[in-house]
Amino acid sequence: MMNSILPLFVAIPLGASFLIALVSRKRKLPADIIANLSTLSLLVLSIIIFQARGVYKIGGWLPPAGINWVLDGFSNLFLVIINLISICATVFSIKYMKHYTGVYKYYSLFLLMTAGMNGVVLTGDMFNLFVFLEIASIASYALVAFGGEHEELEASFKYLVLGSLGSILILLGIALVYGMTGYLNMASISKAISSSGIGQVHIFAALLFITGFGIKAALVPFHSWLPDAHPSAPAPISAMLSGVLIKAIGIYSLIRIFFNVFGMNSIFGGMLIGIGILSMVIGVFLAVGQWDLKRLLAYHSISQMGYVILGIGLGGFIIANGGSLIVASLAFLGGLFHLLNHSVFKSLLFLCSGSIENATGTRQLKEMGGLLKKMPVTGTTCTIASLSIAGVPPFNGFWSKLIIVIAAMQAGYYIIGFVTILVSFVTLVSFLKVMRYSLWGPVSGILANVKESPVLMVLPLVLLALLCIGMGVIALPGVTEVVLKPAIEVLVRGAEYAGYVFSQL
Amino acid sequence: MKGMTIIVKTITRWVKLFIFLFGIYVTLTGHLSPGGGFAGGVILACSFILLTLAYGKEYALSRLSLKTAKSLDSIGALIFLLTALIGMWVTNVFFDNVLQKLFPGTDFMLYSSGFIPLYNIGICLKVGAPLFVTFIVMAAMRIRINDKGEREIIQEEEEE
């Protein structure tokens, strides 16, 4: 079954993208239909394939010469996240993009970005990863500038320069690894490194990867493009960028390379923990002072990515130091669960901000007020998402943050646990500000005639809000075994990835 | 007078066909000799860019309109994708060169290596058409804000 489905994850969005550019230049309706059908079919396929595992050889060529795609628990988790948010964003786009010209270009680029991300999480080849990463990145540069106004072009140019710098560093890292080992296939590289040990060139390449993928994931020393780029894009694109793009091409690639290719050791683990704490703390303190709703959300993306990297880096650090495997698994569970949760509630928040902006014409918190009365559905879903990201029980964000804190405490890193709780508190403060100014209070004068958004825009909001409420059950033992356990096992196995790939050929 | 001097125009009239044919040759023999879809596409685009430089953009656009070029761009990509999907349809392997396995042809002849020439044609269209479009857009288009305050892309007026 896997063999007949796996290539479709790249083929369907690519085909739909070029088909839209070919047939739907004048009218918007065919573009809407093709884009939504293709993202819907991708979501269905990713759920069908969720339990499948295996290695796929492109063109029937064996590695290390040929390119292979590896489907394991980690890739499966990301496929579901990417395609779930894609369908929500495309449904939202039907009404939201009505006011823009050239919508076929938007859908075309959107699907190219989806194809790139699906490719990144499936591939088992370093250079193939770079190619897909560039497809997704370049499509996103253009999408950030889609509005064509001065501010958007400026943000896009900044993103373009920094993103290209990241890509070049990644390419240099890949070249160094290729020079040292003679392979581009991840499993072969992993085997070569584990037999030769990590040398100085490997460490230099690892630093290049941390910088390059750190730029793509907007981790703190490299975050400066994100607060400009994410708010400038149209709302569904902001949801895609914050919800999945920084995870799929940043966090995923970083974790895959450090855990499965280089093999985890305490230096890399310590670096990930350090970057995670920095992102968490600095991101959230930059976010508190913002008055532009989308900019505030963008800063929170940096902070929440810090949680993910902290959880996963902590697990790697514990394993590398010979600590308890159960505590490490708990840390991985916290990190991955938070990643899943963040993609849901952050996409929901950005879509809500799009819905509010579409109805009121403003993004400034000071100009809003009383939207819970005027836009009940958007207001309610926005409240749910805000409470989720702030870590209020019983919403999903609470459980993942709780697991990260418990893992840090059990491993004996009390300061990390304390910082995590502190950041969560500041997050709550900043989202209370959002709710106080935009949702509650008296209706401000200029918003007197605001109406609720159309059904097609509200539908994805409701779906994601239901997920926010219900996803806490994933933390329960029986459900975790199915949903997150396979992904955790990939991280725990670490460099045994190579043996797994070669056994599946 | 549009375009460049009579010398350039005359030379262009002589060489344009050869450049165009050379592009096609490089594309079609990409599996036998150096070159391939990318190089061939660039050469094809260069022949149109030469026309634009020598005769002005109206002449070049009357030969290959922007609309056609944009369509060729998508068609090239779709050719590549469909060829890859044929392999998946026949033997369940993405990018499988089934044509080569079924009808091998003679080595070192034009008809050999199965789907590779088809891939080259797809790449040639995908590279050549957008290169021409990019050149025209960057050289001869500009953004103007119209009466309604919307942005629109127009062709720049020719200065006499």
Describe the structure.
- The complex is a heterodimer of chains A (505) and B (160).
- Chain A has 505 residues and is mainly α.
- Chain A has helices at 2-5, 8-23, 29-48, 73-96, 103-122, 126-144, 150-181, 186-196, 200-217, 226-232, 235-262, 266-288, 293-320, 325-360, 371-374, 376-390, 396-410, 414-439, 455-470, 477-483, 485-493, 497-504, and strands spanning 54-57, 68-71.
- Chain A has one domain (150-504).
- Chain A contains 22 helices and two strands.
- A two-stranded antiparallel sheet of chain A has the order 1-2.
- The radius of gyration of chain A is 21 Å and the shape is globular.
- Chain B is mainly alpha-helical and 160 residues long.
- Chain B has one domain.
- The longest helix of chain B has 26 residues, at 66-91.
- The termini of chain B are close together.
- In chain B, 36% of the residues are buried.
- Chain A binds chain B through residues 3-4, 6-7, 11, 14-15, 18-19, 21-22, 25, 56-60, 101, 148, and chain B through 70-71, 73-75, 77-78, 81, 84-85, 87-88, 91-97, 143, 150-151.
Quick overview:
The complex is a heterodimer of chains A (505) and B (160). With 505 residues, chain A is mainly α. Helices cover 76% and strands 2% of the residues of chain A.
What percentage of residues of chain B falls in helices of 4 or more residues? 55-70%
Largest sheet of chain B: 2 strands, antiparallel
Low-confidence stretches of chain A: none
What is the SS-derived class of chain A?
mainly alpha
